[in-house]
Amino acid sequence: MGNSHSSSKSFRRKLTKKKSLQKLINSESLKQQPIYDPSKFHLPKNDKDIDRMHEQHFLFKHIWGGNFSSPIERTLHKGAMVLDVGCGPGTWLLEMSTTYPQSQFYGIDIEQIFPKEIKPGNLEFIQSDITNGIKFDNDHFDFVRMSLLAAFLQEDKWIHVLGELIRVLKPGGYIEIIEHELQYSIGSCFSMLITPLLNFIRSTGANVQIMQKIDSLLTTTTTSSNHHVSPSSRTAFSTSHPTNMLTNNSSHQVNLSLSNTLSRLTNTHSDTRTVIIGSVHGGQTGKVFEEILTSYFENTVVELLPWYMEISQEKYLELWKSCQKEFKNRASSTKLFKFWGMKIPQ
Ligand SMILES: C[S@@+](CC[C@H](N)C(=O)[O-])C[C@H]1O[C@@H](n2cnc3c(N)ncnc32)[C@H](O)[C@@H]1O
């Protein structure tokens, strides 16, 4: 225990000596000379990424207690049109299309990592960039979902994509969005990885905390009688993230556009779940979550993050190992956020 704490401390001292973290975080030169195409920096690139997404699907299903929260079960049994945007390897779709054979399922992803041939007959995949619009007619789907895309979409494109999701949704149909916020209650060691990661993502124009914004707008744009938030999760939400959204004009514009888009929904709900990282404090769920994070840090961003932090890959991996020790010594948690709502019937 003492060892891990002191090794993380000494690592931090070395890192601080090399270059202050704040300096790393604010490094403007990275914006001017990107080695990485920001929109592609953590797109799934290999089998390990695909395995991680499969594992994540089953963990999230366990955490949320099912594959969806919207009241659509009966429609799915009767025969619904369903769209999953940014579907990745299609794990959710493969399960759903097998469970509801009367319904027709579509998945869209910019990368062709979904199965091309071996899949149920009621499931189709389309390779497409959703920031260019969704190539379906208005009012086409009974259920539209999007899971874990905030880090990939610039904030203004996010608003456009949300508008598209609602456009292709039938009046009376449901939309469901899931996001993951890494920076909830974490120790100093994990912060040393998460802070530069979030700053890099922010430098691409994406906002991983967009769901905070959506949640606060849902409570103001929809009347309190048709927006429901679980009381326990609301407490966790407001204590961890004081909302400070309307700080400048562009932020005001974003809020206005988001409000307009969200005003097309009713019967909205939001729900947050806290996930403790590691088996010591988080049991089996925490163990699986740590495995997913390990794959993310040791595979997905193993080149990007040391480059951004200006440290060697060796030091970076050493830091990740110290984070894993920290998960044992301190209960570190992250947060999942979900909202769902119905398109206002005409
Ligand atoms: C973190 S993964 C989430 C996958 C899946 N939705 C899940 O919850 O496991 C994000 C997915 O979004 C896809 N993606 C990113 N930008 C996209 C875009 N502009 N258009 C379509 N898909 C995109 C990526 O290829 C990746 O498969």
Automatic annotation (TrEMBL):
One of its GO terms (molecular function) is methyltransferase activity. Pfam families: Methyltransf_25. Residues 82-173 form the Methyltransferase domain. This is 24738_t:CDS:1.
